[in-house]
Write a structure and sequence with these properties.
Na+/H+ antiporter like fold; disordered C terminus; 355 residues; globular
Length: 355
């Protein structure tokens, strides 16, 4: 019942946003409406099944952009992708250090019981769910970690699309790669193959299995020159709606009462990181032939699904944005906990000093 009512609310919000011509109406409408209603204490709910199906659909749709020509283009940007990984790691480390400096110890902005472990895992750019699990393993305050990641992703998902629409930064792609025609049999086969990819990622316990599994299979098929079918627009709209709901329901009434100074600092830092990423993207654009708006989406402190959807809807270099985020996600997952162990667990005096 709760899921059904939330879906109706999300559909109504998306329809209104379509009429108002807002950016990403099928994701932003449900996200904002669900978040606002959830904060009043209303019993909203997100269906895990629909959220997974939404990620599956979006992953599949994005993978269809990676034609052989596009893969060659992205491969030629390996150095820019490597720079983006280094940038993201440095940005996250600086964010965590800033949170600790502002909120640790006595003072107006003090957060009770705050540890360096909490601020460390609250800061990496990407892999929000995995960062919360890592934080829990190391005894951090998981509610602060989860809230920091949720608020950061929400703000980036709202600010950048509206900013791009206001600035007229959309539809910059001269051509959109990938299939254009929906083929019933091909779509069914595509769904089966990408579904197997999702199943494999789930069994391997990989992060974002429904998104990454579908993306990898669709990417490999397309890069090999195999064209089965395009994804119907109605299906991608429904997928965005499900993802928007899954983001919005996190903002409950208890969430808003959770250390308001902490949330204010996260919001302020997110605005700063967006500005820094814009400057970094502008500089990177001077070294490439890629528009800085595409590079901002690729380097921004947002989530992989949300930024890739933004690139798709606004036609801003989907393959580049997706490649930047996938590689960044892999690096964050591989390095975050290893660096934490090296900095703090193998150097106990370091974490004692940080506390």
């Amino acid at each position: 019942m709760r899921c059904g009512l939330t879906l109706l609310l999300a559909w109504a919000a998306a329809s209104l946003c379509v009429l108002l011509r807002t950016p990403l109406p099928w994701m932003i409408g449900p996200l904002v409406a669900t978040a606002l209603v959830s904060m009043t204490g209303a019993p909203t709910a997100s269906s895990t099944l629909l959220r997974n199906a939404g990620q599956w659909t979006i992953g599949c749709a994005l993978g269809l952009y990676f034609t052989p020509q596009v893969v060659a283009l992205v491969a030629g940007l390996w150095w820019a992708i490597a720079l983006n990984i280094a940038w993201a790691l440095a940005l996250g480390f600086g964010f965590g250090a800033w949170l600790h400096r502002v909120h640790h110890g006595p003072g107006l902005f003090h957060v009770a019981g705050l540890s360096r472990t909490t601020t460390y895992f609250a800061a990496p750019i990407g892999a929000a769910s995995e960062m919360t699990l890592m934080a829990e393993r190391h005894g951090a305050q998981t509610e602060l970690v989860a809230s920091a990641h949720s608020l950061r992703v929400l703000l980036v998902t709202l600010i950048i699309p509206f900013g791009f629409q206001w600035a007229g930064l959309q539809g910059l792609d001269a051509t959109v790669p990938g299939p254009r025609i929906v083929n019933g049999a091909g779509l069914a086969l595509l769904g089966l193959l990408t579904g197997l990819g999702c199943w494999a990622m789930v069994k391997l316990e990989r992060t974002n299995p429904w998104f990454i599994g579908a993306l990898l299979v669709a990417l490999l098929l397309t890069a090999s020159g195999v064209t089965l079918s395009a994804i119907p627009q109605g299906l991608t709209n429904a997928a965005q709606l499900a993802i928007g709901i899954s983001l919005g329901v996190r903002f409950t009434r208890p969430f808003m009462h959770l250390a308001p100074r902490w949330l204010a600092s996260v919001a302020l830092a997110t605005l700063g990181m967006i500005a820094l990423c814009a400057a970094f993207a502008w500089g990177l654009a001077r070294l490439t032939e890629i528009h800085w708006a595409t590079l901002l989406l690729g380097t921004s402190p947002g989530g992989i699904a949300e930024m890739s959807i933004t690139a798709k809807v606004l036609q801003l270099g989907v393959p580049v944005v997706t490649a930047f985020h996938v590689t960044r996600l892999a690096a964050v997952l591989l390095l975050t906990e290893a660096v934490f162990r090296w900095l703090y667990l193998k150097k106990p005096r370091a974490i004692e000093a940080a506390e």
